[in-house]
Design brief:
Length: about 80
């Protein structure tokens, strides 16, 4: 089982760099990941929060099989035209 030893977000490139326990280094393109899985601004803000405050958890989310399930459960999305 690989674990994440280190993760850091590089604002200049838009990538999260992570080093795994087996010595591999991975790069995650955050913009492409958000475009693929986040459907609205609330889900994007949740991903942005993880990127800046806890990049290790962001890498774990990327390794998860179903990130959409997590994003749908932690965000409360109500379109503006339905709010009164």
């Amino acid at each position: 089982m690989r674990t994440i030893d280190f993760a850091r977000f590089d604002m200049d490139s838009g990538y999260v760099y992570a080093r795994l326990s087996d010595g591999n280094i991975i790069l995650i393109n955050c913009t492409a990941y958000e475009q693929a899985y986040a459907d609205n601004m609330y889900e994007r803000s949740e991903l942005d929060y993880l990127i800046y405050n806890n990049p290790v958890e962001y890498v774990k989310l990327v390794f998860d099989d179903n990130p959409v399930r997590l994003l749908k459960t932690i965000t409360d999305y109500t379109p503006l035209f339905l709010q009164r």
